[in-house]
Amino acid sequence: MISSRDLSILNVMEPIVSHLFEDNYVKTGALKCACDKCQLDIILLTLNHLTPHYTSSQAGEAYIKAHYLEPQLQSDVLREITNAVKVIEEHPNH
């Protein structure tokens, strides 16, 4: 594996999921439990059900984020977040 301080690997789906989750569930108060553990579990479960999109550059990150501005792709991510919310609310890990 290549290792360098100048190189980093980013799954661009992480900030996309985090922002959509924050805007649609956390800020609206739509969660039964809004503790940090439940929020993290929802994000992790969502990410496990989405295809990762890795990049090592800011240009790649910008390209992938721009791609996810399409309404259908945002809808797909929100669907997975909603499924994860249901699972975690039914079976909280705390």
From TrEMBL:
Source domain of life: Bacteria
Pfam families per UniProt: ComFB (PF10719)
Name of the protein described by the UniProt record: Competence protein ComFB
Protein's organism: Cohnella abietis
